[in-house]
Amino acid sequence: MHAAQPPLPVPTAAERAAAFPDIQGMDMRDHMDDDPFITMLQVDQLEWRDDGESDGFGWGVRAWAGYTFNRAWLRSEGERRNGDTRHGEAELLWGHAVDPWWDVVAGVRHDFGGDISRDWLAIGMQGLAPYKFEVEATAYVGESGRLAAKFEAEYDVLLTNRLILQPKVEATAYSRDDIENHVGKGLSDVAFGLRLRYEWHRQFAPYFGYTWSRRFGRTADLADDADESTLEHGWVAGVRLWF
Q: Alpha helix locations (H) across the chain?
């Protein structure tokens, strides 16, 4: 028979003091933050574009800083070709979560890169629709009562745990003509993109894909008058980053 094991020794006063130090009356709840301040930068698109006639560079960036229910948002996207910014926009927004999946956003938008820059007030919604569609829908009010609206939706199709196919659609509309920037009243343009990325990590994912965009109505007429194409399509290649 094996001899009975001796009981564990009783902790000494010094060992108890080391395990449970005196915190001078402090309440540990004062040091536990259930809603910490968090920041994130997400570069959805950082890509080279080639439409067969010229190549260029495009970007799409989302960043936020704040808490669970209230955050400051920065959204920007645009394109450069032949050393010039063809179009670009930057939005500074305040967002408030109205449920686990949706935020209401409001703020300002600045358009640049056209013949004349424009400034807008913005209000909209962004979040995750049923079946995990990521959606942004925003309305804008500009100078002299000028109105605009923009809708974006994208979806991630998981081919494998790392290989992801992302279709994305965008549409914009305006309430009146903007002759200087070749934008017409009504539905202005629709763009569709299909990008296939490989996530080495969630923070780094190279991709390639194909994009298609078309101008409609009065915007197409203004593009024709300026000898600009109303239909553009071509290959893209880039990287998606999170910080």
A: 13-19, 217-225
